[in-house]
Amino acid sequence: xxxxxxxxxxxxxxxxxxxxxxxxxxxxxxxxxxxxxxxxxxxxxxxxxxxxxxxxxxxxxxxxxxxxxxxxxxxxxxxxxxxxxxxxxxxxxxxxxxxxxxxxxxxxxxxxxxxxxxxxxxxxxxxxxxxxxxxxxxxxxxxxxxxxxxxxxxxxxxxxxxxxxxxxxxxxxxxxxxxxxxxxxxxxxxxxxxxxxxxxxxxxxxxxxxxxxxxxxxxxxxxxxxxxxxxxxxxxxxxxxxxxxxxxxxxxxxxxxxxxxxxxxxxxxxxxxxxxxxxxxxxxxxxxxxxxxxxxxxxxxxxxxxxxxxxxxxxxxxxxxxxxxxxxxxxxxxxxxxxxxxxxxxxxxxxxxxxxxxxxxxxxxxxxxxxxxxxxxxxxxxxxxxxxxxxxxxxxxxxxxxxxxxxxxxxxxxx
Length: 415
Description:
By secondary structure, the protein is mainly beta. The chain has four helices and 32 strands.
């Protein structure tokens, strides 16, 4: 019979040497592969190590998370004119770095749009700190390159029609003016935004976005004419729209799954008939309504007699559209008794009861402005209003918008 194991009696020694040898063998078996992998990685050339960069969206705004760039992608910081961009996100990130791609325009005379194709992410700006004028030919300037940024540009029509024909999915405008009342011609639309015929021209499908900062639209039939059926994001920050028939107009039927998202911050829309218009073939019957989401903060709407914030041209009552209508924000003001939504069936326009709409942060009040000259941005700064406000700053634009190019500059567009 096998005897049970026992502890060593007093005076007997424990086999410590054997235990130490066993422990060393275990540690060597576990630690050697870890040390070997670390040593091999530390000797790896720097160029072969995966890079970490802040991922950016289409306009250079950082997301909350870092991402690991694949080894075959060029470094964002190393991207130059000689380095072909792999996608629009790399190009957009390159623009935000110290050496962006730039197209410099003369500031002392009108400029023609270049014939060569620009790279995605190019910054179009004047030389020095002034402003540049783009002479728009008949038919407008065609832009099919995504991620362009226009900075301090005055768009002036040499002949009537659209100023910009945009088929790129994304673009940004900072400090730009769009004028339809030059001495030489009357433009009908500042920007006609359509989907690209060639899918390769729209590198980020489903993420169509335009951003306007410190811009001014004046004396146009439509500031922005949209002919896209998918999701659309529009940002208007400290932007002024004056003396237009419509600020935003849809000509193409949005898909039922689409979301139209419009963000306004310190925008002013004055002496303009409609803020949003959905034309006959555009908006929605009960079955085809897109979702309209407006995030409006500190904006001013003084549309004048007969104006309306939204007008829908559709034969049937837009019930689903009204159910999905979502207006949020704070500190915005609407002058007078201007209706929020009009339903136009082609024979009569009916005002939709506001109790059927979800609207937050919009107050009706009488609004006074600094002046009456709608071509001068400083005259469209709100000077007095009769509604409570939390913020100390006035609603609407802040008066820092650029002035229009002079009429003498417009007169140089033709010999």
